[in-house]
Amino acid sequence: MVYHCLSFSVSTRYVYWKLYSNFGIPITYGHEELTVCEDIDQVHAVVEKYPPYQPIFTKMSYGETQMLDEGLFMKKSCITFLLIILMQFQYAVFFGYIRLREQEMRNLMWISECVAQNQNVEGS
């Protein structure tokens, strides 16, 4: 988004600052620095401060305006999504296991109350 904002005047770039995400590594200070960048070299200098974003610009030398490699973005996002899914999968498994154990205990309580009241329990 920063590359697209470079072609606009400074006043409209501050409007784009509101569109930046409110999470991630370059929050607040990084966004402010990116907003005042006037050319691609300044963007490179700001992004180099954040290690996760350095590989994006390693293929480009200073002053180049070529399009960034979409495959690199897709690979990075796939790795991030995989890690998110794996992390959520781990917590979801524990949460689900606990919930299933709670349901199992409720079922056992229901069966024990039926037995105590001499009621027939239908089903398995």
Write the topology of this structure.
Elements lengths: L1 H4 L4 H8 L11 H7 L4 H8 L6 H5 L11 H47 L8
Short descriptors:
single chain, 124 residues, mainly alpha, 2 domains, 6 helices, 0% strand
Structure description:
By secondary structure, the protein is mostly helical. It has 2 domains: 1-68, no CATH class; 70-124. Helices cover 64% and strands 0% of the residues. The chain contains 6 helices and no strands. The chain is rod-shaped, with a radius of gyration of 27 Å. The chain starts with a helix and ends in an 8-residue tail after the last helix. The model has no long low-confidence stretch (mean pLDDT 68).
Q: How many domain regions?
A: 2
Count of helical segments?
6
Mean pLDDT: 68
What would you report as the Rg, rounded to the nearest angstrom? Answer: 27 Å
**Regions with little confidence, pLDDT below 50 for 5+ residues:** none
Name the helicity range.
55-70%
H/E order of the elements?
HHHHHH
Question: Mind summarizing the main beta sheet?
Answer: none
- Using DSSP, what is the number of strands? 0
Strand residues, percent: under 5%
- How far the N terminus sits from the C terminus, by CA atoms, comes to 59 Å
Structural class: mainly alpha
| Backbone shape | rod-shaped
